[in-house]
Every structure is written in C-alpha cells, then in structure tokens.
Amino acid sequence: MLEKSQFSAWRNTEVYDEFRKQFQERIEAFAAEVMNRKAPDGPRDMYVRGVVAAFVEVLEWQPEFKEDQQAEVNDEI
Length: 77
Known about the structure:
Elements: H1 4-11, H2 14-36, H3 42-60, H4 69-76
Helix pairs in contact: 2-3
C-alpha cells in the first residue's frame, strides 16, 4: 500500500500531468464526436459513454492508503 504523501508526490509530477492531459483530450474528442453527429448511433454512443465513464474513473482513482502511524498512536491513547 502507498502512503498518501507518495500518491500526492506522484500526482505532482510532469508524467502525471501529461497522463491526465491525454485522458482529458480523449474525453473531449469523444464528447465532440457525439455532439457533432447528425443522427444518433446507438451502439457507438453506448460505447463512447462507457469509454468516457472509464476514463473519468481512471482520472479520479485513488488507492487505499497506509494508515498514518501518528493516527494509530493517537487512536491508542
């Protein structure tokens, strides 16, 4: 398991910024595809909604963090 500080440090890297940027660009491209289509395309629209939902879930993901040792000490008191 990760400590919250490790996850925060990773989210503050250039690699993560690029990762997030690429996902957001793809989400915007899928949204534009659906909005600019003249007629609904049921199967494609369902696929796009699923992909966008998955991309958003990836961007919002956070792991379970190790318990803060100080919090454990405080709980014991």
